[in-house]
Amino acid sequence: MRGLFVRKLVGGLVVGGVLAGLLTAGTSADAAPADVQAVPFEISGELPIYPKALWKNGSSGANVRKVEARLVQLKLLEKRYLDDDFGTMTRSAVKKFQKSKDIPQLGYVDQNTLDQLAKVTHEPTQTELYPPAPVVDGKKLDARCATGVALCIDKSTRKLRYVVDGVVKMQLDVRFGAVKTATREGSFTVGWKSRNHVSKLYDSKMPYAMFFSGGQAVHYSSDFAARGYNGASHGCVNVRDLGKIKVLFDEVHVGDKVIVYRS
Known about the structure:
By secondary structure, the protein is of the alpha+beta class.
């Protein structure tokens, strides 16, 4: 009651101040325009106080990975997003979990959310946190291919492997750029796709192109199909199996990982 009284008192002072200003300016209350009325003024509601965020959008590190691993256990987050980075997908998974527990959908992890998450999941194992790299023909692929969706491209074996959550779904023969136009190595993502692409620089067809590093892309090469490893690309990853790359092109999405390495 005391708080309500104070709010009404403040409102009254505000209105009173307005009328006083009119009188000081030489205008009486009676002479005020008809549409000026002394309406009771009241502040309603309180400013919300949000709990402290332990990890939120933009956070990174081992603790974020542990939270992600717990969300994976609950099937609220796909394994591909187990990456130490609190991004859009992790935020969405956190909100889904909060909704399921009928707690505020903050989209970040506060202490209460962490406590609730710990109650319904187990401490992530080392294997859950860092899934082992898949093994093909007795040889491990690059560890970065172990989680999520990846075009795992090995320059040493001249193979492209389409890997989903550590399982090799498809394997294709590939060739790379010449010495002066070498295919870049490293970790990339598919930036954009072009089904019937034609290179403006070299005036050559690049069907089913999946670009990952500037002008470098994975694409079908009729020259590779005809000449094999006798030729080379201008930096792209050439595929010679048209049937397989047609299927691969539809499976791969913008944002999927591209790992180019030497085993």
